[in-house]
Amino acid sequence: MSEENVNGAAATPEATGPAFTVEKIYVKDVSFEVPGAPAVFNEQMQPQLQMNLNQSVQRLNDNAYEVVLGITLTCNAGDKSMYLVEVKQAGVFGLAGFDAQTLDVMLGTHCPNVLYPYARQLVSDLIQAGGFPPFFLQPINFDALYAEGLRQRSQQGQLADAETAGNA
């Protein structure tokens, strides 16, 4: 219920406050590779996992944004690659009535929190369908990741300001 009838007139998002909607959730891209199959299934070494996480945001119109959460999981045993999973879980989100800072926070924390369970399940299903034991990604604190990203951007800005001041 994003619009209400107030004295015969439709309420605007500004009048009712900020609005957040999930318009669509979908898999944008997926890849699963087992380069050493079937020999890799006989490996007795302890596997080592490496996960990379990334996010991109694209503005679609005034109040709609596509957020893409990318997860790459690489599993190696010694110098042999056991499997590689790449998932890009995406969503279209409606965000209206937010100030710029709150909008940035919503896109950087709330939207990935919505997408992550879908990506997590897809990664798990792919690994199991590939013939490996079930694997479940641990929960991720997107609030902490966002705060760390802000801290790093602030430090980079301070370094750039210091370099500019030093060259003046």
From TrEMBL:
KW Transport (keyword) present: yes
Gene transcribed to yield this protein: secB
Keywords: Chaperone, Cytoplasm, Protein transport, Translocation, Transport
Localization in the cell: Cytoplasm
Protein name (database record): Protein-export protein SecB
Family: Belongs to the SecB family.
Role played: One of the proteins required for the normal export of preproteins out of the cell cytoplasm. It is a molecular chaperone that binds to a subset of precursor proteins, maintaining them in a translocation-competent state. It also specifically binds to its receptor SecA.
Xref: PANTHER family: PROTEIN-EXPORT PROTEIN SECB, PTHR36918
Superkingdom of origin organism: Bacteria
SUPFAM superfamilies: SecB-like
Main location: cytoplasm
Subunit (UniProt): Homotetramer, a dimer of dimers. One homotetramer interacts with 1 SecA dimer.
Organism: Lysobacter niastensis
